[in-house]
Structures are given as structure tokens and as C-alpha cells.
Specification:
Strand order of the largest sheet: 1-2-3-4-6-8-9-10-11-12-13-14-17
Number of strands: 19
Largest sheet: 13 strands, parallel
Radius of gyration: 40 Å
Distance between the termini: 136 Å
Number of helices: 23
Helix content: 25-40%
Strand content: 5-15%
Structural class: alpha/beta
Low-confidence stretches: 12-16, 29-34, 56-70, 628-634, 652-677
């Protein structure tokens, strides 16, 4: 073989030969020796804020490699290992929250040893294109990409070949140099529907390029730029960006760098004729004048259905809410993490009571106190459209519990109520104090009274049926104490309210064995006996019953039951309940005749049908025939003179059925003949 042909074959082998799959590397955090390798912190690529957080404890001096064991947190090292696994698997959705809790950093840092993993990740994406594997979404959040044009030269060309890409998220992962490349990717992909570039930094050139790509895009309707620094708060650049987004359906903005001129620009934009139906403004400073401008714009707006205003750094609500109810078109209003004084609660209560379109209201973290809650909750009772109410992270306590009980008893449209992380506790005590080494007695608090009086009143079966079965009240993610708060929330999430009542009755029997009484079923029709016999044998968590309420529906008998906080009975439900039912009812008649009805009606429905039937039935007049011998009134009947003359002449007298010719019914001329009408 000649030297030239040998060189060509070697070149061809180099082109066709695929790089090997990189091996997973362990990162040592220094908390314990897990076999990892200590590295130099200067080799990592941090953002400026992350670097100050990571190295604020020990400066990098002599033996910097050793000090790295305390500077890089244990959770960050675990996140680096999970990031390697995600890149090797070719994941198209990489998020920091899926890699565990990362302490004190905003992005997972980049190390040069991670570059082979990123390159292998891009090759897997290209391989999916060749195999015609569809990719409708691509999401990356909170990681450092390799520097030196990795996005522009390797990742974005691979993404641009996916014609089916609909959703693109590059949140908190772009550098200033990458913004122009992202704008070019958006302009080339005409099938993109949703764009999320939140928490990135854009310079003026990047904003202008992004504005042109959004303006000329034919299908883009969802743009998320929340937390983005837009050229340090340039109002002119923001105005051009808003004009480009006027045909979008969803638009999210907001950054601490926004100036009053930026807020005024946003207010003018909302007051114009636009297509935006959902607008979000977060992490901005809003003065009273800016609040009045936003209120005026919301009155003029005709398209907005959802409005979010969060983290406004102390704005007094309801700064953007019209208390006269003129903001009728809003169906969702998010005012979380602001400030709601008592005066603002009164104006907001007027807005809620007069509004007929609002379905979702979020007021978490507004400093809502008991006085404000007592003003706000009665207005929610009057509202007939509100379905979602969030009041979490507010300093309300047991004093406002009666107002919540009245709300849950009288309102039937509310389906979600969040009062987690508040002073409405279920109970206190019952735990061992590490200071005194004593167990404090259990004290029931306001949250327990809300459950026992409005959601799960176990006084009797009637009170259980009359409880609220439509509203999910969120206290916590687990059952606190013996309250069953999370279990009741899951039961109230059932669409079939009859099923919710059934579950609550079974749960009440399971928690309180003495609640069962045979006399409660004396008036139940005999045809319902099979269903009742089935229900009294049910237990949540056993024999497949309790799906959607507990995780395990086939628990073992005799083991510890986390739901009831007791050890379950090995034999299950006692047989004396079945014996009482079989003895108290005529069971033999049921098996002889079978079910007599196909539909069981209540006593009220039966009485109503009988009443309607009686009204429709007309009273018939009894007819009497001639020569009716049993009529006691014939002897005293005296016909008038006109009738006598007609009888004498023989007019209109019937002939005898026996065939007598011209035989009349009277024998003599003056005789009185009884005649019937």
C-alpha cells in the first residue's frame, strides 16, 4: 500500500472513529473521604456572586487545595456528579432542583474536566436527529456552560436542526456573549412556541437582537424574561422589547434594576390595545404614583385575564386593585410577598365581594394579620366565583380560626385554601424537650378546631355528611399529630362528593371504634343493605381501599398503622357489626325477592312525587243512570213544571229495550215520575 493511500485511510478512520464515552468522576467535598480527588478551586468557573459566597469563609492561601474541602459544599459536589450522569444520558431537561439542594450558589460551577461530558451530550442530541427522534422541549436551568463559543458552535447548531422543537428554556445559564447567539437561534426556528430566558444578563446589543427575533417570529406566544437585567434598566430598550411582545399571550418581566421610567413604560404598554392575557411583574420597586398608573392601565385594558405583581419591596396593597370592582376581566390575581395593611384589606374585601370573574387569588407573604383576615374572609363568603385562595406565610394565628370555620361552612365554591406556614397550628407539645428532658402535654390549637368543626366533624354520621367536602385545606404535607389534616385534604380532592363522604365515614369508624351504632341505619331501605355490609368492612389502606388517599393500599395486618397511629387488628373488622346487621334486618326477605328497586330515592323525593301526582289527578264526577234503585234522593226529588209538561207530551223519552211500541215511562197523566239528569 502506498504512503498516500495509507494516510487517506488513517484520516478516514480518524473521522469515523467516535470519541470514547467519558468515565464518571467523583468530586470530594471534604466532609468524608469517599475516594474522590481534591481539586484546586481556581479551576472552577463561578459567577461573581457565587465566588464571593463560596470563598467567604477561608481565603485561598497556602494549601489552597486542602481548603477547598470546606469552600465547596457537599451538596454542590453531589450536584456535579448528578450533572455528569444527566449529560451522559442525553437528558434534554437539566435543572438544579432535580439535583438536590445546592447551598449558597445560583449555578452549578464548570470545571474543565466536565468538557468531555458536554461534548458527549451534544453528540447524543445530534444522534437523535439522525434517528428522527422528536424533541418538543429543551430545558436547562442553573448550570455553567463551557466557555469559548460552546453554545454558538456546538449546541445551538444541533438544536437548530430539530424542526419539532416547541419549548426552549435557558434559564440562569447564559453569559453576555451568548445572548446574540440565542437571538439567532430563535430567529431561525420558526416552530418555537415558548421561550424562557429568565435570570440572565443582557447588554444593549443582546436586547436589540432579541427584540428583532421576537418581533419577526410567526408563532412565539410565551416569553419569560423575569429576573433578567435588561441593560441595567434602559427604558428605551424596554419600550422596544414591549412593542415586539404586544402580540404574545404570556409575558413575564421584572428586575431590581428597573427604574421608575421602566415602570411608567410598562403602565403605558398595559393601557394600549395588546393581545397579552397573562402579565407578570416581579422584583421591582413601585411607588404610590407608579401604583396609580398601573391601576389606571388595568382599567383600560380589555385583554388581560391574569396579573402577577410579586416582590415589590414594600408596596401597600391594594395599590393596583380597583376597590370599586371595575377590573372585571381578571380571573387570576397574584399579589404574593408584598404588604397588606388593615386599610388595604378593607379595599380588597370590597373588590372581592363585587367581582364576578375572579377565580384565583394569591396573597402569600403579605404580613396578613388577624384583623385583616377577619375583614377579608367574609368577603370571600359572598363571592361565588373564587376557587383558589392562598394565604400561606402570613402571621395569622388561632384568633382568626372562627372566621375560617364560617368560611368553610357557608362557601361551597372554594376548592383550595392554603394556610400553611402560618400561626394556625394543629397542636403544640407532645415532644421531648432537649432542654428540660420532659414531654410537654399536647394542646390543640386553632387548626384542629377548623378540621373538627368544618371539615371532619365526627360527632355523628349526620355531622360528617354536613361537613365541607369540596375545599382542600392545606396545613402541611403530612398528617400533624392525630389531626389527619393531609388525609382530609386528599379526600376533599375527589370530584365525587358522595365518595368523599363515604371515605370520611370509613375513616371515622377506623379512628373511633365507638362511633359505630346500628341504630343509625334503622331507616335505611332494605335494598341498600349489601352496600352497607360492604362499607362497614372497609378500612383505608387495606384490601386495595384508599387509592388516592394513602400510598399503600395493601398493608399487612398486625403491623403499625401510620394513619391511625396504632397497631392494626390481625383479624380486621370485628364480626359483631355484621352480626348486628344480619340480626336487625329481615335478611331472608332480601334474598327471596331480590332487589326491588333499581334506584333508591330519598323521603323528600318520594313525598314530592306523590304531591305532583295528586295535583295532576282530576276528581271525576260520579254519573248515575236512570232507575237507579239505590239512590236515596229519588223519593224526595220534585221536577219543575216545565219538565212535567215535557213528560206528559212524551217528548224526548227513550223507548223500552224490550221492544214495546210507543210505551212511555208514565202510567197516568198527573203522575210524578222520577227523572235523572
Amino acid at each position: 500500500m502506498s504512503s498516500s493511500s495509507r494516510e487517506e485511510s488513517e484520516t478516514k478512520d480518524k473521522k469515523t472513529k467516535k470519541p470514547p464515552k467519558p468515565e464518571l468522576r467523583k468530586w470530594w467535598s471534604g466532609w468524608y473521604d469517599d475516594g474522590g480527588e481534591i481539586v484546586n478551586p481556581d479551576q472552577f468557573c463561578f459567577s461573581e456572586s457565587d465566588r464571593s459566597n463560596m470563598f467567604r469563609v477561608f481565603p485561598v492561601g497556602s494549601g489552597g487545595d486542602l481548603y477547598f474541602v470546606t469552600q465547596l459544599a457537599y451538596a454542590t459536589c453531589r450536584a456535579l456528579e448528578k450533572l455528569q450522569e444527566s449529560l451522559l444520558d442525553g437528558c434534554v431537561a437539566i435543572r438544579t432542583k432535580d439535583m438536590g439542594h445546592v447551598v449558597d450558589i445560583s449555578r452549578i460551577p464548570f470545571h474543565p474536566d466536565l468538557l468531555p461530558f458536554f461534548q458527549y451530550w451534544v453528540r447524543k442530541i445530534k444522534r437523535g436527529i439522525r434517528r428522527s427522534v422528536g424533541m418538543e422541549e429543551f430545558r436547562v436551568e442553573g448550570i455553567h456552560f463551557p466557555q469559548g463559543g460552546f453554545l454558538k458552535e456546538e449546541l445551538f447548531p444541533a438544536l437548530g436542526k430539530h424542526e419539532g422543537l416547541r419549548e426552549l428554556e435557558l434559564s440562569n445559564c447564559l453569559s453576555i456573549e451568548d445572548c446574540t447567539a440565542v437571538a439567532a437561534l430563535i430567529a431561525d426556528d420558526k416552530h418555537l412556541h415558548s421561550l424562557n430566558l429568565s435570570e440572565n444578563i443582557f447588554d444593549l446589543d443582546g436586547i436589540n437582537a432579541l427584540t428583532r427575533s421576537i418581533k419577526d417570529h410567526p408563532l412565539l406566544y410565551d416569553v419569560d424574561l423575569s429576573g433578567c437585567n435588561l441593560a441595567g434598566g434602559d427604558a428605551n430598550a424596554l419600550s422596544r422589547l414591549l412593542f415586539a411582545c404586544k402580540d404574545c399571550d404570556v409575558l413575564k418581566l421584572g428586575h431590581i434594576s428597573f427604574t421608575p421610567e421602566c415602570i411608567e413604560t410598562i403602565a403605558r404598554f398595559l393601557g394600549k390595545k395588546i393581545c397579552v392575557t397573562k402579565f407578570s411583574l416581579t422584583d421591582v420597586k413601585i411607588s404610590e404614583e407608579d401604583g396609580r398608573l398601573l391601576t389606571h392601565s388595568l382599567r383600560k385594558n380589555r385583554s388581560l385575564e391574569s396579573f402577577d405583581l410579586n416582590y415589590t419591596h414594600g408596596i401597600g396593597l391594594p395599590a393596583v386593585v380597583d376597590e370599586h370592582g371595575q377590573t372585571f376581566r381578571l380571573t387570576s390575581l397574584d399579589l404574593c410577598f408584598n404588604r397588606l395593611p388593615v386599610e388595604g384589606a378593607g379595599a380588597l374585601a370590597k373588590f372581592i365581594s363585587s367581582n364576578t370573574t375572579l377565580k384565583k387569588l394569591l396573597l402569600a407573604g403579605n404580613g396578613l394579620r388577624n384583623a385583616s383576615a377577619k375583614i377579608l374572609l367574609p368577603a370571600v363568603v359572598q363571592n361565588k366565583t373564587l376557587q383558589f385562595l392562598e394565604l400561606s406565610s402570613n402571621p395569622i394565628n388561632d384568633e382568626s380560626a372562627p372566621a375560617f370555620i364560617d368560611l368553610l361552612r357557608r362557601n361551597s365554591t372554594l376548592t383550595w385554601l392554603d394556610i400553611s406556614n402560618t400561626g394556625l397550628k394543629i397542636q403544640t407539645g407532645g415532644r421531648l424537650s432537649w432542654r428540660t428532658w420532659e414531654i410537654k402535654p399536647v394542646v390543640l390549637r386553632g387548626g384542629s378546631s377548623i378540621i373538627s368543626q368544618a371539615l371532619f366533624d365526627t360527632t355523628s354520621l349526620e355531622t360528617i355528611a354536613n361537613s365541607n367536602h369540596s375545599c382542600e385545606v392545606n396545613f402541611a404535607d403530612v398528617n400533624l399529630g392525630a389531626s389527619q389534616c393531609e388525609t382530609i385534604r386528599k379526600i376533599n380532592s375527589f370530584e365525587n362528593k358522595g365518595q368523599a363522604i363515604r371515605y370520611k365515614v370509613v375513616l371515622a369508624w377506623q379512628l373511633n371504634k365507638g362511633l359505630y351504632n346500628m341504630r343509625d341505619f334503622v331507616g335505611v331501605p332494605l335494598e341498600l343493605m349489601p352496600r352497607l355490609m360492604e362499607m362497614i368492612q372497609l378500612e383505608i389502606g387495606y384490601n386495595g381501599f384508599g387509592e388516592g388517599v394513602v400510598s399503600d393500599t395493601n398493608k399487612k395486618r398486625g403491623a403499625w398503622d401510620q394513619l391511625t397511629k396504632t397497631r392494626s387488628s390481625p383479624a380486621g373488622v370485628r364480626l359483631d357489626r355484621l352480626y348486628e346487621i344480619l340480626r336487625g334486618w329481615n335478611t331472608q326477605l332480601l334474598f327471596e325477592r331480590g332487589s326491588a328497586v333499581t334506584e333508591v330515592k330519598t323521603e323528600f323525593e318520594i313525598k314530592h312525587e306523590e304531591k305532583v301526582r295528586a295535583e295532576r289527578q282530576k276528581k271525576r264526577r260520579k254519573r248515575r243512570r236512570l232507575n237507579y234503585s239505590d239512590d236515596e234522593y229519588d223519593e224526595d226529588y220534585k221536577p219543575n213544571s216545565y219538565l212535567k209538561q215535557s213528560i206528559r207530551r212524551g217528548d224526548h223519552l227513550p223507548c223500552s229495550k224490550e221492544g214495546d211500541d210507543n210505551k212511555t215511562m208514565h202510567e197516568s197523566e198527573g203522575a210524578d215520575v222520577p227523572v235523572q239528569e
